[in-house]
Amino acid sequence: MSDWIQAHADAIAARAPRELEALVAVSSPSGDIHGAEEAAAVAAALAPDEAEIERIPCSSADHAPDLLVRLAGTGTRRVLLLGHLDTVVSHDEHRPLRREDDRLVGSGTVDMKGGDVLALGVLRALAHRREDFAEAALLFVCDEEWRVGPFQHVERFAGFDACLCFEGGQHSDGGDEAVIVKRKAAATVHVTATGRSSHSGSAPHRGINALLALAGAAQALAARHDPDGDQHLTVVPTVIRSGDAFNVVPGSGELVCDVRADSLDALRDVVGAVPDEIGGARLEALLMREWPGMDSRTPTGALLERAGAAIGRPIVGAARGGASDASHFAPSVPFTVDGLGPLGGGAHAPHEFVLASGLRPRAEVALALVDAVLAA
User: Fold this and answer.
1) What is the pLDDT of residues 101-145, one digit of tens each?
2) pTM
3) Do 313 and 176 meet the contact criterion of CB atoms below 8 Å apart?
């Protein structure tokens, strides 16, 4: 292992638990401006002294600005480190960091403040070799968990040599260090139903039941579920809302369905499964929150081998079903790798955690990938 990887992996692992405690202490649910500002301030304080700090407009309106930390160098390579500061955990449910044996438990630890801490450590390591890059940028967004509109930052970083995203890490089935090089496209189907309310006891025949129409739409969508097909399409109804009282025929409502596949085109086709009306209720289906797929298996293969050799153990490419901002950058930054964060589990749940023992090994993986990119 090179002196640079070893020394900075030691430094990252030594600081990571304290830095994670500071970042997790901030409750930053997506859309909360005060929480995002506080989290961004903590992250900026942990950045290299030489770095330039910018606040750039968030992709989502009414959110705090995103955080961009930039290091200028004298080389030619350009590297983007990527993460997000928002969580899905409300202020009321937020839990600060606590240690349970090898587990560092707290809200947002694995998704993804643990990865943010590693990314900051990698940027500090890069500050010691500025002759090897022209620009090293760290982008922390504030809206990853609930963004519904387009992602605004792709053009700014188009043509960078690498995008390294620090969502939670994993091991392969064989126990090797794994990083994410393939993700499915993801979107949300939103269906609205418009029927007619009436008293369910005295005049049920005068009503048009929006709830039943939505149930029919859910079944029509679920019938498209085909995880073993060419596109590995999954169609999962997740939320239905209709009705306000036990004795009223519900006149309106909405259905939400999570859809994922290898391509966005396959997801767009799903919307056509919803008929215009069921039982007299009008239905309108829209595809929202479109996230592209990602497949960087071919352009990343050789560099993963080189990075694995640098730390003396294999680093293998893996696939994951969940969406990530890395997918937005993959079309314009072919060497896009995700899943560089620490090992852990329980994302979005009260027991969310990262493994303290995994911080140094995952820091080695991230540093080895950066080293491979700069040497390519």
Assistant:
1) 999 999 999 999 999 999 999 999 999 999 999 999 999 999 999
2) 0.90
3) yes
Q: What pLDDT does 180 receive?
A: 97
Q: What are 56-105's pLDDT values in tens digits?
A: 999 999 999 999 999 999 999 999 999 999 999 999 999 999 999 999 99
